[in-house]
């Protein structure tokens, strides 16, 4: 394992311990609302602090972009940047719905190189290194062999943050309910993407994501043989927050159903 990935795994497991401990005392959790449907707890913050402590200790000169504390001063000058979601699926966590994860990615000059997504509830560790494949707990993973959208199980998330997009989204959703085997909204984008990487889902789409929701999951899918794009079929997913992903065959069919529903606000 590349030394940076070893450090990222250590950081993710530390955060996992913080989150698992807190999950046994949900009744004393303080929840703050950042914006409608976007919550933060002291657990998100403690998990983020634990991750940053491990990364800073090993790589003090690296830049950091983290959901709860923003971009570090080093980010401007460093060729390396860590992209961190300390608790992806906060709403699930608050409700004791066991589908949430820690997501950590490392980019070099904007290119994703290392990825970790850790599900502390199931002790499932997803990792990927650019050019070296993707793994689930040391087992090599690949996207599913499904080729037809009709047979595909597709993951998604709702665009509540960018409500302008809701009509376009609902158009996609309506079409896809009729053209797929099923649609799931598990509630943690980093895990949804990792599930595409290991074949539990055959495709995924969401609008209005943040870089920390998808950085690690995107590399995971690419290293597992899947395809990822924005709604236009291009590579601007990190910039636009709109992402479509899937097995090589399902991806194209998914994009074909989604594209006619793009509007001025979703166009990217
Ligand atoms: C959220 C989850 C969710 C997605 C939201 C994200 P958070 O992340 O990934 O699945 O639909 O757009 O904000 O806020 O729980 O880290
Ligand atoms: Ca959040
Ligand atoms: Ca997130
Ligand atoms: Ca989060």
What would your notes on this structure say?
This protein has two domains: 139 residues, Fructose-1,6-Bisphosphatase, Chain A, domain 1 (2-Layer Sandwich), CATH 3.30.540.10; 113 residues, D-Maltodextrin-Binding Protein, domain 2 (3-Layer(aba) Sandwich), CATH 3.40.190. It is built from eight helices and 15 strands. The protein is α+β, with helices and mostly antiparallel strands and 268 residues long. The protein is globular. Helix 5 runs parallel beside helix 6. Bound molecules: D-MYO-inositol-1-phosphate and calcium ion (3 copies). The site of one calcium ion has 4 residues, from strand 5. One calcium ion (CA) binds next to loops. Belongs to the inositol monophosphatase superfamily. It catalyses: a myo-inositol phosphate + H2O = myo-inositol + phosphate. Its cofactor is Mg(2+).
The CATH homologous superfamily of the largest domain corresponds to Fructose-1,6-Bisphosphatase, subunit A, domain 1
The global form is globular
Write down the secondary-structure element order. Answer: HEEHEEEHEEEEEEHEHEHEHEH
Assigned CATH architecture of the largest domain: 2-Layer Sandwich
Q: Which blocks of ≥5 consecutive residues have pLDDT under 50?
A: none
Q: Structural class of the secondary elements?
A: alpha+beta
The count of domains is 2
Q: Layout of helices and strands, plus pairs?
A:
Elements: H1 3-23, E1 31-35, E2 38-41, H2 42-58, E3 63-66, E4 70-71, E5 80-88, H3 90-95, E6 101-108, E7 111-119, E8 124-129, E9 133-136, E10 139-141, E11 153-156, H4 166-179, E12 182-184, H5 189-197, E13 203-206, H6 211-223, E14 227-229, H7 237-240, E15 243-246, H8 248-258
Parallel strand pairs: 3-5, 11-12, 11-13
Antiparallel strand pairs: 1-2, 3-4, 5-6, 6-7, 7-8, 8-9, 9-10, 13-15, 14-15
Helix pairs in contact: 1-2, 5-6
The structure holds D-MYO-inositol-1-phosphate (IPD) and calcium ion (3 copies).
């Amino acid at each position: 394992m590349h030394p940076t990935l070893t450090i990222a795994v250590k950081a993710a497991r530390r955060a996992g311990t913080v989150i698992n401990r807190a999950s046994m005392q949900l009744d004393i959790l303080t929840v703050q609302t950042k914006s409608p449907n976007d919550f933060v707890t002291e657990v998100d913050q403690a998990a983020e602090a634990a991750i940053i402590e491990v990364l800073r200790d090993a790589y003090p000169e690296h830049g950091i972009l983290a959901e709860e504390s923003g971009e570090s001063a080093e980010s401007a000058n460093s060729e390396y940047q860590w992209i961190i979601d300390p608790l992806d699926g906060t709403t699930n966590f608050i409700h004791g719905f066991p589908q949430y994860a820690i997501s950590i990615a490392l980019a070099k000059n904007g290119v994703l190189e290392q990825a970790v997504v850790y599900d502390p509830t199931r002790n499932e560790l997803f990792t990927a290194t650019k050019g070296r494949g993707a793994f689930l707990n040391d087992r090599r993973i690949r996207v599913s062999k499904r080729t037809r959208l009709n047979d595909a199980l597709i993951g998604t998330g709702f665009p509540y943050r960018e409500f302008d997009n809701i009509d376009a989204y609902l158009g996609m959703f309506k079409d896809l309910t009729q053209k797929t085997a099923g649609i799931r909204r598990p509630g943690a984008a980093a895990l949804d993407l990792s599930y595409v990487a290991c074949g539990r889902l055959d495709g995924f789409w969401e609008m209005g994501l943040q870089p920390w929701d998808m950085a690690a999951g995107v590399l995971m899918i690419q290293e597992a043989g899947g395809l990822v794009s924005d709604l236009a079929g291009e590579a601007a997913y990190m910039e636009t927050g709109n992402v479509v992903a899937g097995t090589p065959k399902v991806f194209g069919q998914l994009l074909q159903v989604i594209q006619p529903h793009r509007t001025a606000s979703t166009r990217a």
